[in-house]
Design a protein that fits this description.
The protein has 253 residues and is an alpha+beta fold. The protein has five helices and seven strands, in the order H-E-E-H-H-H-E-E-E-E-E-H. Helix 4 packs across helix 5. The longest helix has 28 residues. The N and C termini lie close together (9 Å).
Length: 253
């Protein structure tokens, strides 16, 4: 058994959780947690369409997101332990894979690794790119740190489509509106219909098409209007297909 066995097991477990997350996200979004609510303004001549989140994501989704981050970050730390063992040394309780936004005075892996291994650790550090906080290794580390202390906050968002319509009860379209596509959340107004002939019939309905998704409602180096599933898939791809292969030759012995 090589040092890669435990690393691949962690990554495989993260993949299992990703598939489970996909299933549970679909179940949550199938409940239509976002409603489009029509509101008539005080002037009696304007009707607006607002977004309301009727049901926030369940805590089980937060736990799954944290599990995926944990397995991926743990796989990265297993690389560090494997490098120490490959150098003929013994990992310590402090052996972990360093993740540095700025270049340290002395980069090191506790327990000791070969000079070639340390060079490769240096090559993948966030400080090597122009925007260190956008580096997937830095994003993963920050996400993992947040999850260690509390459940991650998630929220439902919607991508509004380019068209919305005001219709009569019999289904005929009275007014059509075109809106700029973007991401909207709870209590956002995404369109307005104005009338010059007085009050608006309250039986009229406003409809619009939008794609709902779940995003991280956390401050951190990730966009707050980006699907959390896509974020995790990108981190999974980085660890499994980019980071680990760089160290495989040093861990295969």
């Amino acid at each position: 058994m090589t040092h890669l066995t435990g690393i691949r097991a962690k990554i495989d477990r993260a993949k299992e959780h990703l598939l489970q997350l996909d299933d549970e996200l679909h179940m949550y979004l199938d409940l239509d947690p976002i409603a489009l609510v029509r509101q008539i303004q005080p002037d009696g001549e304007t009707s607006v369409m607002a977004v309301q989140v009727t049901s926030q994501p369940p805590v089980s989704l937060s736990v799954l997101v944290g599990e995926i981050a944990h397995q991926l970050r743990s796989a990265v730390d297993h690389i560090a332990c494997g490098l120490v063992l490959a150098a003929g040394n013994t990992p310590t309780r402090r052996t972990s894979f360093p993740v540095c936004k700025t270049r340290p005075i002395r980069l090191a892996v506790d327990g000791g690794v070969s000079s070639e291994a340390l060079t490769r650790v240096d090559d993948v550090q966030p400080y090597q790119q122009s925007e260190p906080t956008a580096h997937p290794l830095y994003v993963l580390n920050e996400l993992w740190n947040v999850d260690k202390h509390r459940n991650l906050h998630l929220t439902a968002l919607m991508l509004k489509d380019t068209h919305a319509f005001l219709s009569s009860p019999n289904g005929s379209s009275l007014v059509g509106g075109q809106f700029q596509t973007g991401v909207v959340g709870d209590d956002c107004i995404i369109g307005a219909f104005g009338f010059a002939n007085g009050e608006i019939n309250p039986d009229l309905e406003i409809t619009a098409m939008g794609l709902s998704f779940v995003a991280l409602d956390e401050s951190g180096p990730w966009p707050n209007d980006y699907p959390v599933q896509s974020l995790l898939e990108n981190l999974y791809d980085y660890v499994s297909t980019d980071l680990v292969p760089k160290f495989e030759p040093l861990l295969a012995g």
